[in-house]
Structure formats: C-alpha cells, structure tokens
Design goal:
The chain is α+β, with helices and mostly antiparallel strands. 59% of the residues lie in helices and 12% in strands. The protein has 3 domains: 89 residues, no CATH class; 86 residues, Helix Hairpins (Orthogonal Bundle), CATH 1.10.287.130; 156 residues, Heat Shock Protein 90, CATH 3.30.565.10. Strands 1, 2, 3, 4, 5, 6 and 7 form a 7-stranded mixed sheet that branches.
Amino acid sequence: MFKAKNLSPQKLAGFTAFIIAAIIALGSLITDGSWQLMLTAFVLTFLVSYYLYLYTLQNFIYRKIKLIYKFIYQTKASKREEFFNKNILPLKTIEEVSADVEKWAAQKKEELELLRRNEEFRKEFLLNLSHELKTPVFAVQGYIHTLLDGAVEDPSVNKVFLKNATKNIDRLCHLIDDLDEISKLESGEMTINKEPFVIQDLIRDVFDTLSLKANTKGIKFNIKKGCEAPVTVLADKEKIRQVLMNLVDNSIKYGKNDGHTIASVYTMDDRQVLIEISDDGIGMAEEHLPRVFERFYRTDRARSRDIGGTGLGLAIVKHIIEAHNQTINVRSKPEIGSTFGFTLETGKSDWV
C-alpha cells in the first residue's frame, strides 16, 4: 500500500515531479494534440521538477533538520557525523527525525528530573549535616562558656560539664570519621582486600563484642537453627565486621527489652551467600524503607537522636556491600521488628 509518510526525499521528489509532469503533458496533448510534444513536455518537466524539488528539500528543509541534530548532539561535526549528515540523514523521513527528537527530549527530561532529585538530596543532606554538626558544637560551646563564667571553680559541676563536653567532642569526631569513610568508599579510594573466612565465626565475634551492651536491655543473641554449619565467604573481613557491628548494634538500639537478635546464613547458589540480621524491636513503617540507607535519614528524628549515633552507619554499610559488588535490603514492620539482609561471594572452599 502506498504511504506518503514513509517516502524518502528522493521518492517524494519523484512522486511530486511525476504529478506535475503528467498534468503539463496532459495539457500539452489537449492544446496541441501532438504525442511527441506531450512526451517531450513530460520528460523535461519531470526532470526539472524532480531536481528542483529535491534540491529545495535537501538544501532548505534538511539543512534545518541538520541544525536540529547538531543542537541535539551539541558537538562539532566529526567525519563520521559529516558522513551521517550527507548520506544517511537525507534518507530519513520526517517521522523518523521527529521520533529521534522526541527520544532526545525524553532523555533530557529524565536528566532534568535526575538533576532535580539530586538537588533536593543535596539540600536535604546539607541541612541534615548542618544540624548534626550544630548540635554537639553548641553543646560544647555552652559547657565551655559556663565553665569560663565561673563554673570551673565549682567542684560539684565542673567535672560533669567537662565530661559532657568530651562526649559531644567524641560525637563530632565519630561524625567526621564516618563522613571521611563514606567519601573514601564513594570515590573508590578505600580498597577491598578479600579473603576467605567462615561467616558464622565472624558473627559470633561480633556478638561477643556487643554482649555487654545487649545485656543492659536483656537482649539475647542467636544464630538461627539450621544455619550453624560453617559457610565460607570471600570478602574483606574487617569491612564485613564493620557491617555486622553496625547492624547488630542497631538491633540493640531499636530492640525491645528482653528481645532477641538472630543471625541467619543461607547458601543461595554456588556464587552467593545471604546473611540476615533480624530483631523483634520497634520496626519501621513501610514508607521509610526505601530511604533508610540514605545519609542522616532517621525514621524518628527525636527518638533516634536520643538513642545516639551519627546517622551515617547504614549509609556506610550500603557502600561497603556495594563495594563488594553485592546487594543489601531491609524488611520491617512496626512493633514486629526488622531484618537486614546482604549477600556476599561464596568462598573458594565452597566451590569444590
């Protein structure tokens, strides 16, 4: 079926020239009656109309289209682009050019949307960072000014104020250290030194390290039944220790008194192991789950700040896991608890 919208410039020029030549030739036949004159008029009219129309189409309309393409690609034409402009572009239909422009517009819209989201994230990050920095700084400032105003001579409060100032200075140091670590992870400066080790042994070490803190709330640590068999993973042991320390520490912070923290280890296939840290604590609402790994994001800012922490722990955890080319996820429900799960590469000893 003949479709004018699919015609190339050459076909469109030929089709238009044929119609014009046919009309003129028919008029010549009617007025003169000579078939020879009619044929001559048809051929001459067709050739002149074809080349004139094709020239106009390519040198005016397609010149504008080439400018559009140059604007889209925003570059000076290379040899390849010159070949494209001279040999390929003229063969494209207006609809194909329109599709290319619409595709470019859609890409630009996505880029603008991404820039907008990044700008919102930057503003929120700077606002949160400013707040996290001001809280301990103002506290230290208040204690020091009070001491300078005469409280330093009062033995009943001077040591208390100095201890509180020291706590806030330590908080500032932890915040700066965490920011520095995230910066190194994001820039790729921090190297990942992989080695095979049994993940259950590392989990037990972390449990032992945090046992005193857990005992203050009566929280018990366990490795889930059926997950005790040694599983070797290939990862940076100290970085994964940091991940486990953060996840288990969070399970204590947000866990209920006399609760439980349970570690599970699952061999997914010949290449991956899934490690999960679960608690039966306060949990989180579903709307918070996509953002818990963002820097300084807190599900309940007042309660989270009272509990402590820099608000960067889960962001660091995510970066460490992604530096291992693995994934991390979270499942949670209010008053039921949370489960953080991440994958690691299976150790070589498990491949055999």
